[in-house]
């Protein structure tokens, strides 16, 4: 049997998850007025644990007001310190509902979009293990923020990034958190990551024109893919794919804006 790569990071600081609220209609669209409005100025988090927790609590309250209602996702958003994943010059914007540059031309998505996508992943049919998602593949580690969130709501997370610079940055950002159930991989996520599949969920942070067949192949029956897709007119929407015993079901949801899914390593 092939030996799985070990997890380099240890998780210690996370409390046991709270009971999960599930939404009766997983395909519910978010309210139209959800588009981020410029937020009131916030105090700058200083980067030291508790100092930023009040700012984060306000971000979570705003997410809830915007319709994010999965308690486990909200809990993770309240715990993971987003300001640790952005450049020091951007720290005072870390808890605003805005996407931010993370280097090499890539961006970290708005908190609302991240929370929405993880909530959608959790609303699948879905191979939960004691209330958590099972094994998840994230395409596009970027700075590692979403990977850290996923590690709070899933048993096992494998996150793949094609840019060496960002793979290394994520490793550095995540090291102090010592997350035991997260593996970072340098590779082309268009090929998925067959070494550790099948996955109960695949979530992409980059949008392609078509869904790589490898993702469908590496998804377990009962599993779900949440990914941005690019239309023929260049606009993007959120695609949800469920692999059922009877075949593939798909839902096209709201418009989104992600960096492009590209092949090969750099
Ligand atoms: N989840 C990230 C978001 C990063 S932006 C975060 O929380 O920071 C999307 C990322 O997808 C970029 O870093 C980009 O390099 C990466 N990406 C694009 N195509 C990819 C591919 N084929 N395989 C792996 N990563 C890819």
Structure description:
- The chain has 266 residues and is α/β, with parallel strands linked by helices.
- The protein has a domain at 11-17 and 116-260: Rossmann fold (3-Layer(aba) Sandwich), CATH 3.40.50.150.
- Helix content is 22%, strand content 27%.
- It is built from 6 helices and 12 strands.
- The chain has helices spanning 53-65, 71-79, 111-122, 145-153, 164-174, 213-217, and strands spanning 100-103, 106-108, 128-129, 132-139, 154-161, 182-186, 199-204, 206-207, 219-230, 236-244, 247-256, 259-260.
- The strands form 3 sheets. Strands 3, 4, 5, 6, 7, 9, 10 and 11 form an 8-stranded mixed beta sheet that branches. A two-stranded antiparallel ribbon has the order 1-2. It has a two-stranded parallel ribbon with strand order 8-12.
- A hairpin with a 5-residue loop joins β9 (219-230) and β10 (236-244).
- α1 packs antiparallel against α2 and α2 (71-79) packs across α4.
- The radius of gyration is 17 Å and the shape is globular.
- Bound molecules: S-adenosyl-L-homocysteine.
- Residues 102, 106-109, 139-140, 142-143, 145-146, 160-163, 166, 188-190, 205-206, 259, 261-263 line the site of S-adenosyl-L-homocysteine.
- S-adenosyl-L-homocysteine (SAH) binds next to β2, α4 and β5.
